[in-house]
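About this split. The held-out portion is used to measure sequence recovery: a designer receives only the structure tokens and must propose an amino acid at every position. Recovery is the fraction of positions where the proposal matches the reference. Here is one held-out target exactly as it appears in the evaluation file.
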């Protein structure tokens, strides 16, 4: 199984001298041991907001896949230790195995919450990063995501997924409703209220396309949070599996008519639709765009069983990608371009998650012996995968690194959560 290699490099440029950079590649994995004590509240208002802020920041760092966040119960440093290098006893942090130390202070000023983060190299006692950010006082989790993003960028030189949004379905009785939320499932907004609404996909501009039975037939509708739902695709017997192209200008989906289902590509507003598959009596579903928008992965039973295929965005050059297993579905193309994640039914009739390398066809298993795991979707930077799992009885949303390690449940309220999709749109203000 492919894993992550975390190697610390030194930049020769004066502006980046001795700045550690985590390069996420290779076959060995050693997360960076990071100590992150609870934030220090400077006033009573900040003290009330410290818990949700701390929960969000801690979860971001733990789920990132690049840090080994050390247990606070092991800390031996003085709880009243200061925020500056001169006031910190770095030997105490070295004793617990920390290589980096993150300290945060919070202060409330009227309707604003201010956070200051300082990152220290434990071995040298040097302050490597100082970040100060503000957010409305009623959004402490958003402020935490912003600081986690700054820390992630410092170490990797690439955007984190912490400021992005996800969409998913909540199952409650006979209803299936579409929600949009921050990347960790919090700050959720319901787009639909009752009925059967399934398979949402989040577009680059924050719009959500989903299949709805509101007209007693499955059509594709589109909606933005707080806006009205509008019909997008209403042809055929069944329209499902909408997927926006990376630039947001095109839409791919599956349209069932008679005894077959074909992949169509249309403009983002549903106009100019054209079928790009043509297999009489065959089923072609679940399109997923390559990051350059030139190819589409999809599922087809043209070979006898559902398998993952790849073709040009115009339907040319169809190539079968998976040959193992007899029921492969729900492909999602990594934004990095190298992998496609998918769901497969294994020899125990359980559903698990795998990736296939687009060029070599190499299959890597990500989940096993933990209930049913389905509907993988990559983070916008391709480093994490969000999915639905019923390993604890009820389907809930989980996140893991792209190699299947560090599997964590999202910190959401109890419920039945299904079919997530991860978009690049920023979190709402």
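Reference sequence for scoring:
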């Amino acid at each position: 199984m492919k894993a992550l290699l975390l190697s610390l490099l030194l930049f020769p440029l004066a502006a980046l001298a001795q700045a550690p950079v985590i390069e996420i590649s290779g076959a060995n994995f050693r997360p960076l041991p990071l100590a992150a004590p609870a934030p220090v509240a400077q006033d009573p208002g900040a003290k009330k907001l410290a818990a949700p802020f701390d929960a969000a920041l801690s979860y971001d760092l733990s789920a990132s896949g690049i840090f080994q966040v050390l247990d606070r119960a092991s800390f031996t440093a003085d709880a009243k230790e200061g925020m500056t290098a001169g006031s910190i006893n770095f030997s105490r942090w070295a004793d617990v195995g920390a290589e980096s130390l993150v300290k945060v202070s919070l202060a409330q000023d009227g309707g604003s919450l201010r956070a200051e983060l300082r990152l220290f190299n434990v071995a040298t006692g040097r302050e490597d990063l100082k970040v100060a950010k503000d957010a409305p006082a009623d959004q402490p989790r958003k402020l935490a995501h912003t600081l986690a993003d700054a820390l992630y960028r410092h170490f990797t030189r690439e955007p984190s997924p912490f400021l992005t949004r996800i969409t998913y379905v909540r199952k409650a009785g006979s209803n299936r409703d579409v929600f949009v939320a921050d990347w960790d499932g919090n700050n959720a907004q319901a787009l639909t209220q009752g009925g059967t609404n399934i398979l949402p996909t989040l577009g680059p501009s924050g719009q959500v396309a989903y299949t709805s039975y509101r007209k007693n037939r499955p059509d594709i509708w589109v909606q933005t949070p707080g806006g009205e739902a509008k019909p997008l695709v209403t042809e055929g017997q069944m329209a499902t599996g909408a997927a926006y192209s990376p630039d947001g200008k095109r839409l791919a989906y599956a349209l069932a008519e008679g005894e077959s289902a074909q992949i169509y590509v249309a403009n983002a507003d549903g106009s100019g639709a054209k079928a790009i598959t043509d297999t009489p009596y065959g089923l072609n579903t679940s399109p997923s765009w390559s990051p350059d928008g030139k190819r589409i992965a999809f599922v087809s039973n043209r070979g006898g069983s559902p398998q993952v295929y790849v073709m040009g965005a115009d339907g040319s050059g169809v190539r079968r990608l998976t040959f193992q297993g007899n029921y492969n579905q729900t492909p999602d193309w990594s934004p990095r371009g190298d992998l496609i994640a998918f769901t497969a039914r294994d020899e125990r009739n359980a559903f698990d998650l795998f990736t296939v390398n687009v060029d070599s066809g190499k299959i890597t298993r990500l989940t096993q012996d933990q209930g049913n795991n389905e509907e993988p979707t990559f983070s916008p930077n391709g480093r994490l995968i969000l999915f639905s799992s019923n390993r604890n009885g009820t389907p809930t949303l989980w996140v893991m690194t792209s190699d299947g390690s560090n599997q964590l449940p999202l910190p959401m309220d109890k419920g039945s959560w299904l079919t997530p999709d991860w978009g690049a749109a920023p979190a709402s203000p």
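Annotator remark: The first strand starts at residue 5 and ends at 9.
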